[in-house]
Structures are given as C-alpha cells and as structure tokens.
TrEMBL record:
Record membrane topology: Peripheral membrane protein
CDD domains: ABC_HisP_GlnQ (cd03262)
Keywords: Amino-acid transport, ATP-binding, Cell membrane, Membrane, Nucleotide-binding, Transport
Protein name: Amino acid ABC transporter ATP-binding protein
Highest taxon in the source lineage: Bacteria
SMART domains: AAA
GO cellular component: plasma membrane
Length: 252
C-alpha cells in the first residue's frame, strides 16, 4: 500500500477511489472512481442533478464524503486545520458565480490569498497579479471593483485569482453558465489557452464544442455515477449508452 502513496511522475494529481456521498438518505455519488494525471484536461458532463458539482466540491473537501478515498498527489486530504487549508489552496476552484470579494479591487482579489496563505510580499504578489491579469486580458481593470466589470471579465479575474496560488490543478464548475452569450467565448478562450499551457484541469460544462476541443477525456455522469468515460471524439461520435445519446441529442 505504501508504495502506492509515494508521489512520483505517475502519481495522479487527483484520485478518487470508490467515493460515495449521501445527503441524508439521498445517495448523490455512487462508487465514483476517477484519476486525473498531471497536465490532463478532464471534462465532466451530465444532466442537472447528476452530482457534478458535488463531485467537484468533494475534491476540495468543501463537502465531506461518506466512504471511499480522495488523494491529492497520492496523499489523503488532511482532515482539518492548516494542513487542509494548504492543500485546498493549491486546488483552484472557479465557480459559476465568480465568488469575487465585491468590495475589494480586482487586484486585491488576486493578491489576497497569495499574501495571506503563501506569505508572499505585497509588491511581489501585485507584480504577479498584474502579469496574470494581463494573461487573461484584463490588466486595465485591476483597480476596479467587480461590479464595474462585465461578467466575462469577472470570470477571467476569478481565473487569475486561482492561478495566483500556483495550483496543482483547477476545478471549473460551469464557469460560463451565468454569462451572457456574447461573453462565453472570451472565458472559454482563456481556459483553452490554460489547457494548452499544460494546466491540470477538471471542467464541468454544458459547452459541448468546447468540451470536444479541449478535453483529453470526457466523463459522463448520470444519477450520481460515472456512466461513460472516454476520448472526446469517441464519446461524441459513438456514445455507448442510451442515456448519453439522449443527453447529447438535447444539445442539437
Ligand atoms: P449537478 O451539479 O450535476 O447539477 P449536484 O451535485 O448539484 O448536481 O447535485 C446532486 C444531487 O445532490 C441533487 O439531487 C441535489 O439536489 C443534491 N444536493 C446537492 N447539494 C445538496 C445539499 N447541500 N443538500 C442536499 N442535497 C443536495
Ligand atoms: Mg452543478
């Protein structure tokens, strides 16, 4: 067992082993096993209520699990305290609702966690933040507060904030679902370039063209379980289950 826990080049960044999760008596994750390798882009799709958000949240221990194991770089997630905060801080999370601090500038939003958690000096944190804001195309918005930005710009700020922690991986839970249609592409473009740069990513999305283009692997969830898993071309051209066929047909 011990050798499996050793971190090395082949150790998945994220690994779930037979994870089960109940909300009361409601079984929302059913024996979910999944591993995400360094640099891999895994896209999770599936109907509403199938457990996609819960799955993302368990990876960061925003939700506890009922049974099974979750390993980050081969190590179990610490149960609590500083150790948990440290590991959690290195798995970035980008939500549908941006979750920016509304009364702080964009620059503050990006520098706060690196300063508080990684103890990076303000000057260095700001320099890095400006570089990241430039990377996502909103350097000129740095001194504004979130309400002064468009939804697409706010979501790009949230991505810069995640990147500022030098994450091992970033989880995206429907990052474009709250956006006006004309702002979706700018966020998908930033994510595509991140994927190309080698970032390890787990993405929940309903943007099927994007999923097909960016994913190394597609996971199809239904009713709390992984029903299908495979290369995007294979999955989209030849879904194996009736349920996946039905789901894909609803996007055409
Ligand atoms: P998805 O993201 O795929 O739409 P979710 O992970 O949000 O699905 O939800 C999976 C199931 O768990 C749903 O039936 C939902 O109602 C239920 N659920 C999610 N969060 C909670 C919660 N905090 N308490 C009780 N039930 C929840
Ligand atoms: Mg969800």
């Amino acid at each position: 067992m011990n050798s499996e826990r050793k971190s090395g080049a082949d150790t998945p960044v994220i690994e779930l082993r037979k994870v089960n999760k109940y909300f009361g008596t409601h079984h929302v994750l059913k024996d979910v096993s999944l591993s995400v390798r360094q640099g891999e882009v895994v896209v999770i799709i599936g109907p509403s209520g199938s457990g996609k958000s819960t799955l993302c949240r368990t990876i960061n221990r925003l939700e506890t699990i009922s049974s099974g194991e979750i390993l980050i770089e081969g190590q179990p997630m610490p149960a609590e305290g500083k150790e948990l905060a440290q590991v959690r801080s290195r798995i970035g999370m980008v939500f549908q609702s941006f979750n920016l601090f509304l009364h702080r500038t964009i620059l503050d939003n990006v520098t706060m966690a690196p300063m508080d958690v990684l103890h990076i000096k303000r000057k260095d944190a700001e320099e890095e933040a400006l570089k990241l804001l430039r990377q996502v195309g909103i350097e000129d918005q740095a001194r504004k507060v979130p309400a002064q930005l468009s939804g697409g710009q706010q979501q790009r700020a949230a991505i810069a904030r995640a990147l500022a922690m030098h994450p091992k991986a970033i989880l995206f839970d429907e990052p474009t679902s709250a956006l006006d249609p004309e702002m979706i592409q700018e966020v998908l473009d930033v994510m595509t370039s991140l994927a190309k740069s080698g970032m390890t990513m787990v993405i929940v999305t309903h943007e099927m063209n994007f999923a097909r283009n960016v994913a190394d692997r597609i996971i199809f969830m239904n009713d709390g379980a992984i029903l299908e898993e495979g290369a995007p071309d294979e999955f989209f051209a030849h879904p194996k289950t009736e349920r996946a066929r039905e789901f894909l047909a609803s996007f055409r």
